[in-house]
Design a protein that fits this description.
The chain is mostly helical and 345 residues long. 34% of the residues lie in helices and 1% in strands. It is built from 13 helices and 2 strands; from the N terminus they run H-H-H-H-H-H-H-H-H-E-H-E-H-H-H. The protein has a two-stranded antiparallel ribbon.
């Protein structure tokens, strides 16, 4: 016969298990929820689909830990998350250009990180074609992390708890460059921003509607801006010169293609979360949306490769600027910005 204490203990265990199984979704801790890659209803199919990189909680957790691991850099001071800050939509707030090891300053503004699974090329010049290999640029750049992938492999192999984390994620304590990059991708590719007020209006979610000013701004945007900043990503992923300088000091896309016709051309940036991603342009020269809009109104310079749609700029009066700004703020996805699943733990 079982002792009373044993029976009582078993009863308590049964109750605990029943409670655990009956917890609502809101009661489940973030680390207990199954990590998924969700495509918003108003988005097309992504370019990256995890077919050869099966998404898992362990892989995502490892990728996030590596993303925030400053010890991977040459002087142990800079992580991916140092330049890609969640509260700034994973760009670097108030920094014109990226800041790396030894306080070194890069030459371009840090791009935000979200909706990467829909991109087929990365960085301002499109120099990388694969999301999985894109971290290598930051790892090896002398003004970013200033190291190399084999140094990182060696560090991880000899640093707890990484061998165990790789075993949980990939079934083996083996650590190599491919697995490092795949795990980081499991984190970065899940950074999907598609739940702004704009998205809710487009999906006709209950109660979602633009104000009169936002709607006026949206109509102006479609008339004056949407040919480059195409919905739903608010970029057409092309490379263009928007007349910042008569002669660009940065080669831009020409650095990759070698074509004179690409000099001073940069990828059209997304406008999603633009309220949080200042400063603006490839060199971070503008700190406010007012400056950006005034550039298009009166500051476009006749560079040799100026985009044909900007030869006369984009005339905007004061009222139109305010309406467009009101619309642009509907692209802010606060749920994404504040999602603790993506935060450094």
């Amino acid at each position: 016969m079982l002792k009373k204490t044993t029976v009582f203990a078993m009863l308590l265990l049964s109750i605990a298990l029943m409670y655990a199984c009956s917890k609502t979704e809101d009661e489940v801790a973030p680390e207990e929820k199954k990590i998924t890659f969700s495509v918003p209803a108003n988005f097309p199919a992504p370019a990256y689909n995890f077919e050869n990189n099966t998404l898992s909680n362990a892989g995502f957790a490892l990728g996030k830990k590596l993303f925030y691991e400053a010890r991977l850099s040459a002087d142990k001071s800079v992580s991916c998350g140092s330049c890609h800050q969640q509260f700034a939509a994973f760009t670097q707030l108030d920094h014109k250009v990226s800041h790396g090891v030894n306080n070194c300053q890069g030459k371009r503004n840090t791009p935000p990180l979200f909706n990467l699974a829909w991109q087929k090329a990365f960085f301002w010049d499109g120099g990388v074609k694969n999301i999985e290999t894109s971290p290598l640029n930051a790892i090896t750049d002398a003004c970013e992390m200033g190291t190399d992938i084999q140094t990182i492999v060696s560090f991880l192999k000899n640093t707890a708890p990484y061998p165990d984390l790789f075993k949980q994620a990939f079934g083996s304590t083996e650590i190599n460059s491919q697995l490092i990059l795949k795990s980081i991708t499991q984190f970065t590719a899940v950074l999907v921003s598609g739940n702004s007020k704009y998205d809710k209006v487009m999906r006709k979610e209950s109660g979602a509607a633009f104000t009169a000013t936002e709607l006026a701004g949206y109509n102006l945007f479609k008339q004056k801006c949407a040919s480059c900043h195409t919905e739903p990503f608010f970029t057409d992923f092309s490379y263009r010169s928007n007349g910042l300088d008569v002669v660009s000091s940065d080669e831009g896309r020409a650095h990759i293609t070698g074509l004179a016709t690409d000099l001073g051309k940069f990828r059209v940036p997304t406008l999603r979360n633009i309220e949080y991603t200042s400063p603006y342009m490839h060199d971070g020269r503008f700190y406010s949306l007012d400056e950006v809009l005034e550039h298009y109104n009166s500051g476009v310079k006749a560079s040799a490769n100026l985009d044909g749609q900007l030869t006369t700029g984009i005339p905007l009066n004061t009222s139109e600027k305010e309406q467009i700004k009101a619309f642009l703020k509907t692209l802010t996805d606060n749920e994404f910005i504040k999602n603790t699943l993506f935060s450094e733990s």
